[in-house]
Amino acid sequence: MARLTSILSLVLALASPSPTAAAPPDSISGQPLLGSSFGIPFNATYDYVIIGGGTAGLVLANRLSASGAHSVAVLEAGSFYEISNSNQSQIPRWVWNGAGLGFGDVNPLVDWEIETEPEEGSGGARIHYPRGRTLGGSSSRNHMVYHRGTKGSYKKWADEVGDKGYEWDKFKAYFEKSTTFNKADGSKRLANSTPAEDPAGARSKDGPVSISYTNWVLPITSWVLKATEALGMKPIPGFIDGDLIGSSWNMRTTDPKTQVRDSAETAYLRPALKRRNLIVYHTTYATKILFNGTEAVGVRASTLGKAFALTARKEVILSAGAIHSPQLLMISGIGPKATLDKYGISVLKDAPGVGQGIEDHPAIGVTYKVRVKSSTFLDTPAKNEEAVREYLEEGTGPLSSTGGELVAWEKVPRRLVSNKTAAALDVVPKDWPDLEFLVTSSYPGLAPDKDDYAGVTVVLVNTFSRGTVTIASSSIFDQAIVHINFLTHPVDQELAIAGFKRAREIMTHKSMAAVVVGDEVLPGNGTFTDAQILKYVKAGSRTISHVSCTCKMGKKSDPLAVVDSEGRVFGIQKLRIVDASGIPFLPPGHPMSTIYALAEKLADRILGGK
Ligand SMILES: Cc1cc2nc3c(=O)[nH]c(=O)nc-3n(C[C@H](O)[C@H](O)[C@H](O)COP(=O)(O)OP(=O)(O)OC[C@H]3O[C@@H](n4cnc5c(N)ncnc54)[C@H](O)[C@@H]3O)c2cc1C
Ligand SMILES: *[C@@H]1O[C@H](CO)[C@@H](O)[C@H](O)[C@H]1NC(C)=O
Ligand SMILES: *[C@@H]1O[C@H](CO)[C@@H](O)[C@H](O)[C@H]1NC(C)=O
Ligand SMILES: *[C@@H]1O[C@H](CO)[C@@H](O)[C@H](O)[C@H]1NC(C)=O
Ligand SMILES: *[C@@H]1O[C@H](CO)[C@@H](O)[C@H](O)[C@H]1NC(C)=O
Ligand SMILES: *[C@@H]1O[C@H](CO)[C@@H](O)[C@H](O)[C@H]1NC(C)=O
């Protein structure tokens, strides 16, 4: 169970001969146990060396070390977020602290502080692109929204990579293996906002990650659900059984009682910390993958400048995430030849797909003044104190929610787009929505006052713009060059305009009349024509940090595919990529569930000798 961990207990866990710091691997080459006082086995050999202790990396660390038959090392640039970011990373509402577009309030101990190139989709601004630099990776940094993709999207995945194991009927077992479903707590939520039990939940019985309903919801959500239903988004049992089109209540990766964040660190690492065959090198960068010919044999690493190398007897597994996995591959000699040549990196394999094809989901909101309590829940010190009490003593109140809800999905009504765009959108399967709707309690840019504001944010989940990541030097310590390129494709621009109009239709629907006060506040008057809407979209949109597909999985015949359906890098031996970079495309919606499932599936395959 995820609890608010006192810093002291973790410090003690690190300082005492805890397995994180001190358990010896089963065999050590070079000098054993250098770094004496902490007993860190530098220059050691393991069966598996995992780069990145994030969402996927810690699933692998747990599963590959479970039987005791294999030794496993994890290299993670960050450390325990409970220490480096206190309860800021644990309490749902506080995800907004340090979430700014700039860097002033971002804690570098848990975030990579990546700055993109000037993004057309953000009016030419460079944006802060958050990524978790901590154990648990982005699962320790994200907004905890949990749902699964659609049956059709996983069928497309299976077809594209030539592996039926990704069809929903088979793949779903791994979504279930990674999670435990918890019913909504009717004693904490009002009757009109307590979902009926999702029958699919019964199949997620004892996985490491808790998926739960919040013990508190933004009141306006109940009205928005009436409006989305009236507009054709029919209620469905939930978003975890391979269907999304429709409306429902959303789940999050939190402990059902305490409402503390569950992450790959709490769910997969903590229960495995005592294993003597699992070593975590935290606060340690992988700086290069080492090869003998085309076979990966180890990883060069640095703990605050102290350099060493780990040898991998069986495999090196790259789980550094969608920005750092391609960066490390390129630095290590696998990537587009022209890029490697430019930085004097000797080419081990010319792999033109590395760093290409970034997919992401743009979001844009509309805001109204409302008559129900919404943005003023925490606007005085007294309210904050009471919220802290409710949260700590009862696991409820506004701190137990991030302050919004995912409520509905739909194919954009075709009347709102041109026939050309409709035809482009129709390339995805029938169950793949174009738009996702979230309820939000305010929107960036709005100065707080004594009134309540709320709105709907629309997220584009069927997009055509693609970005890139490339290197700026041959060193892992120089930030990669990231172009998300969102909203650059004309289809995405048209969909954004249509989605924006749809968000307005929801907020101005007659079911909302009882709670909405007056005219739209943001963007408000002056944003009516498509050109005006597009201007607002570009000035006010963001992505929701779903960067992926930069070392994509595919068939050998696809020149841009970097890994096969088992995550193995084409043309290289003993090197696998398991993380958001290695998916063939971004399924609709939020990707965390898919990353957990992918890592579970590939852990199974590795243990099965594939
Ligand atoms: C702000 C934010 C909000 C999000 N909200 C949601 C949401 O609500 N729901 C959802 O489903 N998804 C959400 N996502 C997306 C989701 O969290 C990610 O897609 C997913 O966690 C990615 O998993 P991963 O294993 O690919 O990478 P990560 O979990 O990011 O793991 C990569 C790890 O590798 C480490 N690393 C990188 N380079 C090195 C190196 N050289 N040496 C050592 N270690 C290294 C990193 O520090 C990190 O720990 C969000 C993401 C963010 C950032
Ligand atoms: C969060 O941690 C700080 C110390 O870092 C502590 O003062 C505060 O009471 C904690 N808040 C909650 C809600 O646990
Ligand atoms: C490199 O691989 C070759 C061929 O498998 C092997 O003979 C050699 O010992 C390896 N070298 C090292 C340093 O592991
Ligand atoms: C690891 O081995 C390399 C090469 O032998 C050596 O240069 C380095 O100092 C060693 N590092 C540690 C921390 O022992
Ligand atoms: C768009 O498609 C609809 C339905 O197929 C058709 O009736 C209409 O004429 C088309 N409009 C244009 C401008 O081509
Ligand atoms: C929008 O314009 C109308 C007409 O000029 C005005 O009555 C209304 O108050 C304006 N609303 C806002 C939010 O500015």
Write the layout of secondary structure elements.
Elements: H1 7-15, H2 19-22, E1 45-51, H3 55-65, E2 72-75, H4 81-84, E3 114-115, E4 128-129, E5 145-146, H5 151-161, H6 168-177, E6 179-181, E7 209-211, H7 220-230, E8 246-247, E9 251-252, H8 264-269, E10 278-281, E11 284-292, E12 295-303, E13 306-318, H9 321-331, E14 334-335, H10 337-342, E15 349-350, E16 362-370, H11 381-394, E17 404-410, H12 419-425, E18 435-440, E19 452-460, E20 468-470, E21 481-483, H13 490-507, E22 516-522, H14 530-540, E23 542-543, E24 575-577, H15 592-607
Parallel strand pairs: 1-2, 1-13, 2-10, 6-7, 13-24, 14-15
Antiparallel strand pairs: 3-4, 5-9, 8-17, 11-12, 12-13, 16-19, 16-22, 16-23, 17-18, 18-19, 20-21
The chain binds flavin-adenine dinucleotide (FAD) and 2-acetamido-2-deoxy-beta-D-glucopyranose (5 copies).
Residues 30-31, 34, 42-43, 306, 308-309 line the site of one 2-acetamido-2-deoxy-beta-D-glucopyranose.
Taking Cα atoms only, what radius of gyration do you get, to the nearest Å? 23 Å
CATH homology group of the largest domain: Glucose Oxidase, domain 3
Which hetero ligands occur in this complex? flavin-adenine dinucleotide, 2-acetamido-2-deoxy-beta-D-glucopyranose
- Could you name the ranges where pLDDT drops below 50 across 5 or more consecutive residues? 6-38
Number of domains as seen in the coordinates = 2
CATH class of the largest domain: Alpha Beta
Q: Could you tell me the CATH topology label of the largest domain.
A: Glucose Oxidase, domain 3
What is the CA–CA distance across the termini? Answer: 33 Å
Overall residue-averaged pLDDT value: 92
State the share of residues found in helices, binned by percent. Answer: 10-25%
Biggest sheet, in brief? 7 strands, mixed
Number of helices: 15
Q: Assess the beta-strand content as a share of residues.
A: 15-25%
